[in-house]
Amino acid sequence: MIDFTGKTALITGASSGLGEAYALKLAGLGVKVILVARRTDRLRALADRIISEHGIYAASVLPMDLSTRDAGATLARILKGRGTQIDVLVNNAGFGETIKFVDEDNRFIVDELTVNIHTLVELTHAFLPGMVERNDGIVINIASTAAFQSLPYMAVYGATKAFVLSFTEALWGETKHTKVKVLAVCPGPTATEFFDTNGTTPALGKFIRTSENVIESTFRALEKEKTPAAVIDGPLNKLTALSSRFVTRRASIKLSGKILKPKEKN
């Protein structure tokens, strides 16, 4: 069993969904959580809940827009300036939309690339060296089953998650001879605000999992003596993600396109 007592975790995208679920789980294990997202009111409400359950020093908030230039470096500089040691990093912040690439707003694309890739890499680069030096720490990067195939109508989002998976697996390879755990978590469609704002289709209904399911998959993987480089949440999601090995990329792309194609507006 991993002893989390007295550790400090930085969780991005902590105002709802998976970020909130990771914060609640880690706080329950005795971890002080630093909550980062744009929505100050949601962060403070979550921090108040955690503090009421686990004590005054259990949670703190750092409202920040992670889509701004050098947001990751700025956040790291603030924490290091305070002398804060990060023992657990949860790079959860990320977003996307279901739309034809040619219709996607350029500002949205830039923000999506910044949050999903740039900020994640900056934060990992800021805190992983200290973990390696201490020979202790955990990095959890939230990828997606979208990382395993090209996704028409979610072209940028799928590509960013493929990057996160590849990046995290490479870091796992670099750190596997240490006691640092680096894990890519690959949820499928999950009942969070992502689909409230992004929209979903009936075809995805049978794949929907809960945040709690994803948390359980994460911690089962972390508790293994040899933590894997990545974990896919849910047997059906695992089967779907890995099925791309047995069909042509052309067929996989056509199927994904049929599932994700937005409904025509009247």
> CATH architecture, please?
3-Layer(aba) Sandwich
Distance between the termini: 55 Å
Helical amount:
40-55%
Low-confidence stretches: none
Write down the Rg.
Answer: 18 Å
CATH topology category name: Rossmann fold
Strand content: 5-15%
Domain unit count? 1
Q: Helix and strand succession?
A: EHEHEHEHEHEHHEHH
Q: Residue-averaged pLDDT, rounded?
A: 91
Task: Write down how many β-strands occur, each being a DSSP E stretch of 2 or more residues.
Answer: 7
Largest sheet composition? 7 strands, parallel
Structural class: alpha/beta
Shape: globular
The CATH homologous superfamily: NAD(P)-binding Rossmann-like Domain
CATH class: Alpha Beta
Please report the number of helical segments. Answer: 9
* Arrangement of strands in the largest sheet: 3-2-1-4-5-6-7
Describe the structure.
The chain is α/β, with parallel strands linked by helices. It has a single domain (8-260), classed as NAD(P)-binding Rossmann-like Domain (Rossmann fold, 3-Layer(aba) Sandwich). It contains nine helices and seven strands; from the N terminus they run E-H-E-H-E-H-E-H-E-H-E-H-H-E-H-H. The chain has helices at 17-28, 40-54, 71-81, 106-134, 155-175, 193-198, 211-222, 235-242, 249-260, and strands at 8-12, 32-37, 59-63, 88-91, 137-142, 180-186, 230-232. It has a seven-stranded parallel beta sheet, sandwiched between helices. Helix 1 (17-28) packs across helix 7, helix 3 (71-81) packs parallel to helix 4 and helix 4 (106-134) packs parallel to helix 5. The longest helix has 29 residues, at 106-134. The radius of gyration is 18 Å and the shape is globular. The N and C termini lie far apart (55 Å).
